[in-house]
Amino acid sequence: MERFQRFIEDPLVIKWSWLAIGLLITYISIRLINKGLSGYISNNSTRYTARKFTSFLGFLIFTVFAMVTFNYKLSSLTLALGVAGAGIAFALQEVIVSVAGFLAVLFGNFYKVGDRVQLGGIKGDVVDIGVLRTTLMEMGDWVNGDLYNGKMVRVANSFIFKEPVYNYSGDFPFLWDEIKIPLKQGSDIQLARDTFLKILAEEVGDFALESKSSWEKLTKELYVENAQIDPMVTMVFDENWITFTLRYVVDFKKRRGTKDVLFTRILESINESLGRFEIASAAMEINLTKSTT
Prior knowledge:
Layout lengths: L1 H7 L2 H30 L3 H26 L4 H18 L1 H16 L7 E4 L2 E8 L3 E7 L8 E9 L9 E2 L6 E11 L4 H33 L10 E6 L3 E11 L3 H18 L21
Antiparallel strand pairs: 1-2, 1-5, 2-3, 3-4, 6-8, 7-8
Helix pairs in contact: 2-3, 6-7
């Protein structure tokens, strides 16, 4: 009995007990706060960011509590941190920069969960933002087009301070895309232009109207020109053929599918034109001369 009494009165046991209680309280508090956030925040991205910040803040508070618990005087804590600070900063510099990157991502509007980005040469959709790393569902590599290849890539958050961050869906949810159509010389260019404009209006015209408000908002916030959102068809030509360029805005997640629909409609319209405009192709003539002896 006396041994048990001495055990529970041991200062180290008391400290570990307080530490366990602090951990339990922190865990329960984070769970309750995150559960409350689900009821008050409807936006998925904002709710995700708030949960991440709450978890990070709870971890920070618990760390400070643990350090204070095992140091009777804050002055001793400050001295210990001062002595170890230089070595810790050097040994964990990448970790420290990644944590700073995490805070920058949360509050700097670099990207959020669901955005399509390119980090450190890796292109994909952001599926998770951790304290040290951002997780991407990768696109490309051996797969052509904007399609997943099945690899999950974790990129250190420190990359945002070292390399450019390409966000394909940040302040406006669309991209500009183009299709080039080469036609034979002698084609009815006015009919071709009108046909292509009609196809664009039918397939992507509604999305262009929806995108105008996002672009107008961006032009008010940033110094960018008020670019054309409506579908556009332009033409160039040389001695070989006439090239039409179809420019349009598209949802960043539907670029490949939209291009397939447009190409299908364009091919159908060319076939229905009964030769009034036709696809051009490179041709090579070879003259064979028979030698006589």
